[in-house]
Input
Amino acid sequence: MPARGRGAAPAGEAEGGEAPFWKRKRLHEMSREEWESLCDGCGRCCLNKLEDMETGEIYWTDVACRLLDDGTCRCKDYEHRQEHVPDCISLTPEIVPRLSWLPPTCAYRLVAEGRDLYWWHPLVSGDPLSVHMAGISVRGQTRSEADIPAAALEEHMVTWPGEDPMQPPEPARKRKRR
Output
């Protein structure tokens, strides 16, 4: 764990011993700075996803938004992203609970569900690189949508972005014998 500055509160605890803001506040009560700091920088939400129109099931791809920097997992032009990518969805406290495609490790989703952040979240660890060191981010694992035609997205489907690596795997299902 990285060293904290002298007098800093323990990870996950605000100064004065009170619970950190994400444990005390609901999403709509957060300041802009608190809201933005919830993003762990994993880049998972910036991956292209396919939806089965009959079942609503989401299929993840390793194809990222053209603005995602594959090395940092941050948007190359966050402030103006919707000018470049009009269908980029701005997260708000109102829509977070309705977005089934948010990764299970997403801090916005976790807080909306009343759950705590994982140990590797930069707000808990104190280290912005911990999300990468824990293997949660998409760093080095994506291709830019600028290089992949939309018709070829099915060829790039992957399962790892939709998984919660901190949860035990589901037990294998037994096949029924005929």
About this structure: The two ends are 53 Å apart (CA to CA). The chain has six helices and six strands. Residues 17-158 form one domain. The first strand starts at residue 47 and ends at 51.
